[in-house]
User: Fold 4Fe-4S binding protein from Methanococcoides seepicolus.
Amino acid sequence: MSEKTINYERLKRGGFLRQKQKEDLFSMRLRVVGGQLTSDQLRALADASEKYGKGEVHITARQGLEISYVPFDDTEDLLDELQERDVHQGTCGPRVRGVVACQGNLICPRGLIDAQDIAKKIDEKYFAMELPGKFKFAVTGCPASCMKAQENDLGVMGGLEPKWVEDDCTYCGLCQTGCPVDAIKVEDEALYYDRDKCILCGQCLLICPTDAWIRSKEGYTIYVGGKVGKQPRLAVKLTELVDENTLFGIIERSVEFFKKEASSGERFGDTIRRVGFEEFKGFVLE
Ligand code: SF4
Ligand code: SF4
Ligand code: SF4
Assistant:
């Protein structure tokens, strides 16, 4: 049996998770931003998993990657080798976790924001920041919410408010058929748009053959307080279609609020509930 003492807290901060096996085996979580890796990074992972693990890489539920079966004595070497090849440790515990994001408007035809860029900016500023509890960000390119903005402590979603240009409309009815929430009604030579029903998805702009729907406003919609796990709860919408500066101001204030008000181990949504949504809203939107 090994005589050495393992500093598990240090390992945990760095994204190492001790495995269930009796030997000193660790699973190493890696830092992945928005699920994006280069081919060089993938080659580095393949090499490291063969050299130090079992030649396997596990994809986690939040776009993370883990190399498992790494003996304790090899952890430092593994870390050094990966860092040299631009692959870095992930994190766990009461910290800001890896930021997840979809492809956004660089790739996806429905994308309304550059989700990857926003994810990188959040990661650069907040990744692994120590907080009273874990804190998860998600960035999703449009209200389809493939990245599940509503299941995270703070979710960012692209949005677009459409505007109808009467002179360009032929009343073909395609936008009525394509709107996912029945916010458009076309009758004879009339079109009705219900802003209260509209979820800001921008589908009508994609569908209309005559460009009779145009952009009125676009930006970032912010959800707060979501989580999954043993007691799941969907996030609530804090504000919609803000610009990038306002988005990052709200993120900063949200993190400040969490630092100031949260009890140890608490999730953001629980803190908001305990303190009161209106008080929280006043603090972050002031
Ligand atoms: S959330 Fe929207 S932009 Fe992102 S992948 Fe899904 S459909 Fe595309
Ligand atoms: S799809 Fe365009 S042209 Fe057809 S009804 Fe809608 S706005 Fe008018
Ligand atoms: S933006 Fe989406 S929800 Fe709103 S009217 Fe257009 S298709 Fe419907």
In short: The pocket of iron/sulfur cluster (ligand 3) is lined by residues 162, 179, 181, 183-184, 198-204 (CB under 6 Å). The mean pLDDT is 94. The two ends are 58 Å apart (CA to CA).
